[in-house]
Amino acid sequence: MYHLKLLQLALSFYTRLPTPQNLDYQKLPQASTYLPLAGWLVGGGCALVFYLAALLWSPFTAAILATIAGIFITGAFHEDGFADVCDGFGGGWGKSRILEIMKDSRVGAYGAIGIGLLLLLKISVLADLPIAATPLALLAGHSVSRLPPLLLMWRYDYARLEDSKGAAAVFKPSAKDLAFAATCAVLPMLLLPAVCWWAIAPVLLVNLGLGQYFHRHIGGYTGDCLGASQQVAEVVFYLGVAGLWTFI
Question: What is the mean pLDDT of residues 192-211?
């Protein structure tokens, strides 16, 4: 029951899926360990939408609808973080100014351009995959991409001195937490050809670079940085799978 409650907390915070109302939000930080499991549900929903849409329309249209489904299920939670990071690091100079811009709810030119290009790239890569492979890539991608935020939380400190608007952002997972999350993250990979496992390597390398970039400029991470790391990891994973598929 304890683990089920944590999963429900993760779904309540990171998605718009219906959850019980009587949840203990004091345990929200620990619930972030269940991010990859939440990715199973988000990815599964996107995969189902793609599969059904591809029966009627082109792969490109199906990829757009699957992307819309993911945004609808999560409430654009991670996309919003990516846009804020683009605005903050693109338009800010120095830690205080970067953090100030990221806290602003308005979307600037860097954020609009960044999220637009990210979504275009994501849709393009998904549409280029074989139709039978795309639902599997969506399921695995949404799961695998939710491990990198936990790696940032484990390695770096939270950059803001004031309280976070999301308590989960200040959680530092243990090695046991990471092992559990990593196992959940990679399990959907079993549905893909073995060569696709190599797509995890660029995800980890890019996340390592992102973490160092965030640390150098603001001394750690914020909730927006975590959302950005998930979005970047997801599209890098799709790029990796698409590239590796040429060898199948």
Answer: 98
